[in-house]
């Protein structure tokens, strides 16, 4: 006891000594720091948010301050939110909100009022806004959760979270949670996690809970801000109820429908958790089957047709179970309702004939003669009446004919396997009743045509077959093979039908043969080609053969048998009599069409010439006359004195014709080239002038003619005032001229 007391005293002295040393060290360090520190004596200021203003929050202090110095601040909120007087008192001039800004950084300096010089340099300081509990907790969203029924105790349902804008380092910003209802079923922890408190949630009793969650800041204190939210918790269904039949006995009268009836199922679970499966005795499972529909009810269907004559009533039990049922089931006491007795009464109906087979298959050789028996089909009336049956085939193209009484079938058309390999057709069976014909049914019959070796093999040549001048004996110049339309196993043999002195044929025993040079010495300028007769024998029974002539041209070749020049071989071609007749008819038809086209064009040309001659007869005569140069022989065709008298008739005053307004050069002999140049220049530059087509005909007429000039270009009169109707009295020869100079023509404003 004394030792322990002395020990405690020693420990106390040691602690006192250590504290003394530390105190001395700190004092020395503080003295050193004071020697190095600036003359400012502040660093932080504090102000409470939402406090009244103006309010003094502190004082700036410098040991260099005197009556001739002032304090100046700058930075965030300087001289607006915060102000300082010449004594260094720091004031706030408005309410502050910490959630908007929690601190302000400023700088202070001491300057001389007179010189404005800095007495004490800038020093940073911070004004911090103290938080008050002025914000409520906030739930950012609406919460919904789900939990399976019968979930274990402590199962997590969901997590709720509320936020508070106050300082989280203080109780103002911390949030606690509490349930306002449902505390017997659910619980919530400080982090907002909601869990189950029981393991007996039952969706069939209650499938949804509305839980009010309270969020409160300053947890642990009665004071504080509160916010509430309602959380929806859905109880999800599981398969914990047995599916039960609503009825104990199902009786149906059945004829021939596919679906017999529906066995409705009662299950308290949701549809997605219904999982019933149905079984029945093996004796009836081959006839009936139970499947589920969209509502998960049992649908009894037929797997095969029922026969009233065989069995008129079917009685059996359908059992139901669920593989995903959670045991023990909530309705365990109703297990007896998981089975139902079914009675199906078969009703008699008039049924069509039934064939002894669902499909008949027969076969015949393709060389079978007409009348050969194919086979027999048979059908019966399944009803008690047992009516007679008649048979028929409605396909006109069918190669088979059937006996309507017995169902025996015979061949009525020749068969060709290479054309049609099989002939499927329908045989119809129809009841013969006292009232007439009854019900019908049909069956598919397939007649397969068996192959017979009736096609000769055909030779096939690989690539181009030719021989070069420089080919040596033993050189292979080509390969041949064969094809056959028959279906037997192809085993062709090859040989030469006629011996050859120049080539040899070697059978490769693989349905090919090689053609090789037997002896060389070929000349491309000599014989153009060689012929080789190849015989092919097939492997059928009986064996058939064919002979084919192979033409082998002689070519001038380079190295590696490169064909450079081959003179074409003469190939004989034969044309049948019918093809020759068709060719001749085509040639005659084309010839007749050509002749008709030529005659039509000639007729059209003559018609145009005939029509044009009457309208231009006098005009052409005048053109010829104009170019005569005044020959007196022209008077034999016309009485030019009449023209002269008509022109010199004083019954009218000549006025310039329309063509007279066209400018023309002075008529002078030998000046034709100049006139042509002038007219050409006018045609090139005067786009609005009349077409200059026949002016050269009437511009210069023969002055030696007794009739004088007939051109309107020689007169200065206007044709619009002249009457040329007198030309109609001169006879048919002047009819066209009267039309040209008549009133109708002049009214149009153009002379045609």
Strand content: 25-35%
The helix content, as a percent range, equals: 10-25%
Low-pLDDT parts are 1-10, 21-38, 569-574, 615-630, 642-662, 694-701, 745-752
How many helical stretches? 8
Backbone CA Rg: 64 Å
Tell me, briefly, the overall form.
Answer: extended
Report the mean per-residue pLDDT as an integer.
77
Q: Determine the N-to-C terminus distance.
A: 163 Å
Report the structural category: alpha+beta
**Largest sheet features:** 5 strands, mixed
Number of strands: 41
Task: Describe the model.
The chain is of the alpha+beta class. The chain is built from eight helices and 41 strands. Strands 34, 36, 39, 40 and 41 form a five-stranded mixed sheet that branches. A four-stranded mixed sheet has the order 1-7-6-3, with no helix packed on it. Strands 8-14-13-10 form a four-stranded mixed sheet, with no helix packed on it. Strand 11 and strand 12 (193-196) form a beta hairpin. The longest helix has 50 residues, at 577-626. The protein is extended, with a radius of gyration of 64 Å. The N and C termini lie far apart (163 Å).
Any chance you could write out the topology, listing elements then pairs?
Blueprint: H1 2-36, E1 44-48, E2 55-59, E3 69-75, E4 82-84, E5 89-92, E6 103-112, E7 118-130, E8 144-148, E9 156-159, E10 175-179, E11 186-188, E12 193-196, E13 208-217, E14 226-236, E15 244-245, E16 249-254, E17 259-263, E18 265-266, E19 276-280, H2 282-285, E20 288-292, E21 298-302, E22 313-322, E23 339-346, E24 354-355, E25 359-365, E26 373-376, E27 379-380, E28 388-392, E29 400-402, E30 408-411, E31 422-433, E32 436-450, E33 458-462, E34 467-468, E35 476-483, E36 493-496, E37 503-507, E38 512-517, E39 529-537, E40 545-557, E41 563-566, H3 577-626, H4 640-647, H5 672-685, H6 695-698, H7 735-741, H8 743-747
Parallel strand pairs: 1-7, 8-14, 16-23, 25-32, 34-40
Antiparallel strand pairs: 2-5, 3-6, 4-5, 6-7, 9-12, 10-13, 11-12, 13-14, 15-18, 17-21, 19-22, 20-21, 22-23, 24-27, 26-30, 28-31, 29-30, 31-32, 33-35, 35-38, 36-39, 37-38, 39-40, 40-41
């Amino acid at each position: 006891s004394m030792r322990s007391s002395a020990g405690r005293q020693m420990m106390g002295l040691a602690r006192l000594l250590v504290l003394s040393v530390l105190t001395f060290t700190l004092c020395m360090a503080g003295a050193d720091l004071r020697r190095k520190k600036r003359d400012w004596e502040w660093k932080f200021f504090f102000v409470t948010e939402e406090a009244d203003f103006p309010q003094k929050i502190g004082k700036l202090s410098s040991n260099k301050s005197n009556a001739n110095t002032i304090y100046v601040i700058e930075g965030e909120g300087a001289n607006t939110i915060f102000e300082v007087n010449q004594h260094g008192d720091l004031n706030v001039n408005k309410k502050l909100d910490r959630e908007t800004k929690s601190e302000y950084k400023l700088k202070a300096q001491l300057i001389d009022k007179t010189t404005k010089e800095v007495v004490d340099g800038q020093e940073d300081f911070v004004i911090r806004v103290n938080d008050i509990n002025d914000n409520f907790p906030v739930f950012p969203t609406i919460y919904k959760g789900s939990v399976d029924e019968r979930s274990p105790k402590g199962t997590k349902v969901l997590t709720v979270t509320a936020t508070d804008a106050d300082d989280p380092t203080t109780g103002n910003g911390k949030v606690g949670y509490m349930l306002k209802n449902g505390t017997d079923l659910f619980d919530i922890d400080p982090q907002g996690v909601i869990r189950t408190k029981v393991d007996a949630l039952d969706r069939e009793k209650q499938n949804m809970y509305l839980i009010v969650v309270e969020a409160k800041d300053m947890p642990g204190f009665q004071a504080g801000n509160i916010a509430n939210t309602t959380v929806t918790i859905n109880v999800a269904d599981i398969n914990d109820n047995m599916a039960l039949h609503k009825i104990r006995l199902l009786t149906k009268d059945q004829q021939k429908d596919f679906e017999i009836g529906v066995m409705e199922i009662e299950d308290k679970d949701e549809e997605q958790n219904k999982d019933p499966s149905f079984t029945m005795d093996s004796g009836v499972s081959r006839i009936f089957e139970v499947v589920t529909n969209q509502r998960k009810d049992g649908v009894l269907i037929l797997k095969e047709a029922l026969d009233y004559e065989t069995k008129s009533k079917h009685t059996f039990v359908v059992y139901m179970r669920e593989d995903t049922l959670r045991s023990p089931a909530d309705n365990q006491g109703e297990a007896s309702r998981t089975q139902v007795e079914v009675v199906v009464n078969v009703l008699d109906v008039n049924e069509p004939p039934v064939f002894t087979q669902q499909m008949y298959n027969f076969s015949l050789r393709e060389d079978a003669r007409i009348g050969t028996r194919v086979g027999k089909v048979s059908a019966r009336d399944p009803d008690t009446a047992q009516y007679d049956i008649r048979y028929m085939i409605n396909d006109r193209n069918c190669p088979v004919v059937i006996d309507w009484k017995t169902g025996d079938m015979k061949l009525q058309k020749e068969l060709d396997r290479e054309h049609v390999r099989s002939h499927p057709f329908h045989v119809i069976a129809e009841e013969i009743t006292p009232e007439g014909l009854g019900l019908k049914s049909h069956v598919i019959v397939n007649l397969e045509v068996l192959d017979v070796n009736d096609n000769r093999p055909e030779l096939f040549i690989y690539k181009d077959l030719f021989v070069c001048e420089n080919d040596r004996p033993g050189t292979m110049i080509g390969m041949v093979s064969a094809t056959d339309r028959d279906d037997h196993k192809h085993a062709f043999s090859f040989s030469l039908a006629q011996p050859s002195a120049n080539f040899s044929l070697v059978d490769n025993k693989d349905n090919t043969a090689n053609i090789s040079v037997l002896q060389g010495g070929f000349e491309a300028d000599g014989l153009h080609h060689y012929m080789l007769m190849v015989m092919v024998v097939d492997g059928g029974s009986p064996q058939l053969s064919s002979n084919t002539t192979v033409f082998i041209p002689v070519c001038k070749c380079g190295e590696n048998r490169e064909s450079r020049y081959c003179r074409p071989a003469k190939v004989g071609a034969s044309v049948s009599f019918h093809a020759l007749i068709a060719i001749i008819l085509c040639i005659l038809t084309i010839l007749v069409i050509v002749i008709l086209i030529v005659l039509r064009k000639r007729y059209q040309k003559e018609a145009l010439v005939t029509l044009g001659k009457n309208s231009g007869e006098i005009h052409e005569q005048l053109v010829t006359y104009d170019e005569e140069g005044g020959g007196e022989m022209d008077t034999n065709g016309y009485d030019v004195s009449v023209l002269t008298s008509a022109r010199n008739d004083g019954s009218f005053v000549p006025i310039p014709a329309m063509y007279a307004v066209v400018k023309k050069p002075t008529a002078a002999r030998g000046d034709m080239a100049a006139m042509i140049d002038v007219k050409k220049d006018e045609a090139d530059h005067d786009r609005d002038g009349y077409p200059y087509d026949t002016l050269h005909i009437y511009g210069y007429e023969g002055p030696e003619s007794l009739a004088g000039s007939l051109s309107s270009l020689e007169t200065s009169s206007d044709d619009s005032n002249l009457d040329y109707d007198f030309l109609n009295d001169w006879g048919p020869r002047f009819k066209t001229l009267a039309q040209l100079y008549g009133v109708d023509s002049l009214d149009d404003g153009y002379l045609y």
